[in-house]
Amino acid sequence: MYINDLWNILDVLSILFFIIGLAFRLTTELFYAGKILLCIDFVVFCLRLMAIFTISRTLGPKIIIVRRMMTDLFFFMFLLSIWVVAYGVAKQGILIHNDNRLDWIVRGAVYEPYLIIFGNFPTNIDCEWKQNRQYYDFPFIRTWKSMT
């Protein structure tokens, strides 16, 4: 059967998305929805193109290597996400007290540590923007200094 193969399903899906997206682009009410469908169609078409390139003598082995590498990369990214969430929960628990807004709690525990990977430090933990702030302003350091 033609429809039992995954690649044939992608072919049919890309053709349907293209026809529906093109029809939507011809109307003014559904113009943006057509743009979204055509973008999704392009992604599906590129996935299908990857399967076609596996036949090539030069590109085929490289695509197979990348496919195998992605499985190894998935496990590394899984471990990295565990470390990022662990850091984010600890940071959120130490720096933020009694915040009832769930969206800000999740943002502080997941999104901000994700941005720290790329070097974008949030202002609540980056004290460089506070020029005249001493390190004694942090409660833990102030308590530790008073004990010594």
TrEMBL record:
It is found in: Membrane. The keyword Methyltransferase does not apply. The keyword Transmembrane applies. Its main location: membrane. It comes from the Eukaryota. The chain crosses the membrane at residues 6-24, 36-53, 73-90. It holds the Pfam family Ion_trans. InterPro entries: Ion_trans_dom, TRPM. Keywords: Membrane, Transmembrane, Transmembrane helix. GO terms for cellular component: plasma membrane. Residues 2-95 form the Ion transport domain. One of its GO terms (molecular function) is ligand-gated calcium channel activity. It is a multi-pass membrane protein. PANTHER family: TRANSIENT RECEPTOR POTENTIAL CATION CHANNEL SUBFAMILY M MEMBER 2, TRANSIENT RECEPTOR POTENTIAL CATION CHANNEL, SUBFAMILY M, MEMBER 6. This is Transient receptor potential cation channel subfamily M member 2-like. It comes from Notothenia coriiceps. The gene is LOC104963233.
